[in-house]
Amino acid sequence: MRLFVALSPPEETRRRLADWTRHLVGEVPGTRCVPARNLHVTLRFLGEVEDDAVADVLGGLENVARRHPALALALLSPGVVPPRGKPRLGYYGLESTGELGRLRAEVAARLEVLLGLETERRPFRPHLTLARCRPAWSRGVAERWTSAEWPHPDRAFEITYVELMESRLSPSGAEYRPVGRFRLEA
Fold first, then answer.
1. What is the mean pLDDT of each run of 10 residues along the chain (186 residues)?
2. How far apart are CA 48 and CA 170, in angstroms?
3. Which of 41, 102, 146, 166 has the CA that lies 20 to 30 A from 95?
4. Angle at Cα 161 formed by Cα 19 and Cα 165, nearest 5°?
5. d(CA 158, CA 12)
């Protein structure tokens, strides 16, 4: 199974983000907006995991989730990847407390030991991927994206679960299915 560990915003937040994305760039050729149901913050991508190791991963996540409280997150600002050159991805960055970093570090450390994964070297920058584009966006579209204002008064939301998700790739994009869900309950 191709797996990753994620945090999913509340349904209302995901719907608003998907609507905002479609309104902003939905007509740009080659742009594929991420469906609301797929919006998430990736804590750790695991890649292919053997079926017999999934139970250990679920147990490890349940143990970690018990020791962490619900998370307060907020939308910070939109951005593109790469930031210079020809953007192929639009995202919304997140502002958070240090608790998100602690949760992410503990999840990563636990699963790296369980699965023998290499330690991730890139700094963790929490975000929600909202759009992918091929061919790359023009500078004008990228500037419109990065200068767009969030139209709703509320930018904050709460995360109450950590999830193990399966990712199945298809020509129309990735399809995600929850494998396990654990309440953040410290």
1. 97 96 92 96 96 96 96 96 93 92 96 92 94 94 94 93 95 89 92
2. 16
3. 166
4. 75
5. 11
